[in-house]
């Protein structure tokens, strides 16, 4: 059980990590949440969700965690049980970003002063906005990775691997997979929150959340398109390089073939064979072979095959 509480100007924030049956019972006693809510927080869900009840809201959001190493990425679920004076946040795996926000709200006087409002609406906005800002930092990291790959591709850096490109594409895929379904949910949540709190003063803040979310979505879509083009470009360059190598090897084989024919003929064990017993026969045959090779190379050069 990992349950922490923080009180700010009469507003109560309960943060629960990996809820146990004891935590579920505590939350059920804390407020008369709808049974659907208490049943939904027993285990993580796969999809974002927002539900409006008469005296509380239930919000499920997912946040991508992009690893800076080759380790697998994670998608962290955060469930928010919202009343006007109590906020319960639930996470099902370690989420340092949310823990940092909680510690700031608990210990930082400047932040506590900002959060000292009448209802939980500004606290909730602050949490989601901070998590969105961390997503923008993840996008900055991905942008640097894309620029790094782009520079390698156009510098013909052989150290660039398909795995490196695929890893960045997977990062983008994991990011998109978590945020794309949330667009409609977040828009619906803003409408329900305005109705639930009944205050117009929070409208600019809710609008700011939607703007930030839209910015995140546009950035990740742009990065996806860029990586798709870079992947195709790198594939084309690799195919072109492979074609050139095959062409060189084919020309090499075409030059060697007549030389092998000449050496095979003069290597036949026959009683009578021209240019076999003279003192300069060997050099004559070698000269013929060199002449044939040079003529073939000149021919390929004039055809622009070399």
Automatic annotation (TrEMBL):
Signal sequence annotation: none
Predominant subcellular localization, coarse grouping: membrane
Membrane-topology descriptor: Multi-pass membrane protein
Keywords: Cell membrane, Membrane, Transmembrane, Transmembrane helix, Transport
InterPro entries listed in its UniProt record: CorA_cytoplasmic_dom (IPR045861), CorA_TM1_TM2 (IPR045863), MgTranspt_CorA/ZnTranspt_ZntB (IPR002523)
Localization (cell): Cell membrane
An annotated Gene Ontology molecular function: magnesium ion binding
Annotated GO CC locations: plasma membrane
Residues passing through the membrane, by range: 245-268, 280-300
Protein known as: Magnesium transporter CorA
Organism: Candidatus Azambacteria bacterium RIFCSPLOWO2_01_FULL_46_25
Taxonomic lineage from the root: Bacteria, Candidatus Azamiibacteriota
């Amino acid at each position: 059980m990992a349950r922490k509480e923080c009180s700010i100007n009469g507003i109560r924030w309960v943060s629960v990590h990996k809820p146990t049956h004891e935590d579920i019972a505590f939350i059920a006693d804390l407020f008369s949440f709808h049974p659907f809510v208490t049943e939904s927080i027993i285990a993580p869900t796969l999809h974002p969700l927002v539900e409006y009840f008469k005296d509380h809201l239930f919000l499920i959001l997912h946040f991508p965690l992009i690893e800076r190493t080759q380790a697998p990425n994670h998608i962290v679920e955060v469930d928010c049980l919202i009343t006007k004076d109590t906020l319960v946040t639930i996470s099902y795996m370690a989420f340092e970003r949310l823990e940092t926000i909680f510690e700031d709200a608990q210990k930082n006087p400047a932040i506590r002063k900002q959060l000292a409002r009448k209802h939980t609406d500004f606290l909730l906005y602050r949490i989601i906005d901070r998590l969105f800002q961390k997503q923008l930092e993840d996008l900055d990291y991905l942008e640097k990775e894309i620029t790094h790959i782009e520079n390698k591709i156009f510098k013909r850096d052989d150290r660039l691997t398909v795995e490196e490109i695929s890893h960045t594409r997977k990062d983008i895929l994991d990011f998109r997979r978590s945020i794309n379904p949330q667009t409609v949910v977040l828009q619906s949540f803003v409408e329900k929150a305005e109705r639930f709190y009944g205050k117009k003063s929070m409208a600019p803040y809710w609008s700011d959340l939607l703007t930030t979310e839209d910015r995140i979505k546009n950035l990740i879509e742009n990065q996806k398109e860029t990586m798709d083009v870079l992947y195709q470009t790198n594939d084309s360059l690799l195919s072109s390089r492979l074609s050139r190598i095959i062409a060189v090897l084919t020309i090499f084989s075409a030059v060697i073939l007549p030389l092998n024919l000449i050496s095979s003929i003069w290597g036949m064990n026959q009683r009578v064979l021209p240019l076999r017993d003279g003192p300069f026969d060997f050099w004559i045959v070698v000269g013929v072979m060199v002449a044939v090779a040079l003529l073939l190379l000149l021919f390929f050069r004039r055809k622009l095959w070399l």
